[in-house]
Amino acid sequence: MNTVLLERPLSTGQTLQIVQGDITAEEVDAIVNAANEQLQHGGGVAWAIAKKGGPAIQKESNDWIRKHGTVSHSAPAWTSGGLLPARYVIHAVGPIWGDTQNAGAGSSKDVQLADAVTGSLRVADELECSSIAMPAISTGIFGFPKDRAAGIIFSAIEKYFEGNPSSRIKTVRLILFDRPSVEVFVQIWQSKWGQQV
User: Fold this and answer.
1) Quick one: what percent of the chain has pLDDT higher than 90?
2) Burial class (CB in 10 A: 0-12, 13-18, 19+), 30
3) Which of 14, 86, 125, 134 could form a Cys-Cys staple with 31, CB 3.0–4.6 A?
4) Ranges of each domain in the chain
5) How does pLDDT run across 123-136, given as a tens digit for each residue?
6) Distance CA 41, CA 48 (A)
7) DSSP of 9-31, one letter per residue?
8) Mean pLDDT value of segment 107-114
9) Is the pLDDT of residue 99 over 60?
């Protein structure tokens, strides 16, 4: 069962939540998949989503690639939710951290992560979604440092809604599966906004 750990209203009217649990169980309009550019859902959260969502998700992903080509950081793909409770899966491609440990603030990897988040929100708006759940994009097998990612993800969400005041999205849920991710995201949340629940 998914548990809301922290919740706050954004200045633009949306509700942002940190949730510990399983993104495949989310009953929202859209969930975000941390995908690779070929939409081959073979590992991490992508594998879990494709497994629980059934073969339709991989089939629709293959069709997307045939029609549109590889997926960029700023332009996520989307498919149906298959057998998932969510209506849609938005396939966002975050950066692979790789050998950029010494990259400074504002590096291209930071921009790519922010683009993946804002691109996912934009697609959710295009699909007329009022609720979206996303994982900690790029922090799993792609190796992006969790503390750095948390700050980028929080800021990207805020900036998206500040720039899109007519957004249909009302609720954004950040779904964190493992305890280390929860601890880091809660710590960054509290340093940014305080203890609000």
Assistant:
1) 87
2) buried
3) 86
4) 3-98+105-194
5) 999 999 999 999 99
6) 8
7) E-TTS-EEEEEES-GGG--SSEE
8) 93
9) no
Q: What is the 3-state secondary structure (H, E, C) of 51-72?
A: HHHCHHHHHHHHHHHHHHCCCC
Least Cα distance to 91 among 99, 79, 100, 83 occurs for 79
Structure tokens at 125: 């708006």
Closest CA to 90 of 99, 98, 81: 81
Q: Please give the pLDDT value at position 195.
A: 67
Please give the Cα distance from 27 to 8 (Å, whole number): 19
Residue 156 has pLDDT above 90, yes or no: yes
Place of tokens 């934009």: 122
What's the CATH architecture for 3-98+105-194? 3-Layer(aba) Sandwich (3.40)
CA angle 66, 69, 71 (to 5 degrees): 125
DSSP state of 126: H
Write the CA distances from 1 to 52, 91, 104, 168, 177, integer angstroms: 16, 24, 38, 27, 11
H/E element, 7: strand 3-9
Buried b vs exposed e over 104-137: b needs ≥16 C-beta within 10 Å? eeeeebbebbbbbbbbbbbbbbeeebebbbbbbb
DSSP-derived 3-state class of residue 80: strand
How many whole angstroms separate alpha carbon 177 and alpha carbon 136?
A: 9
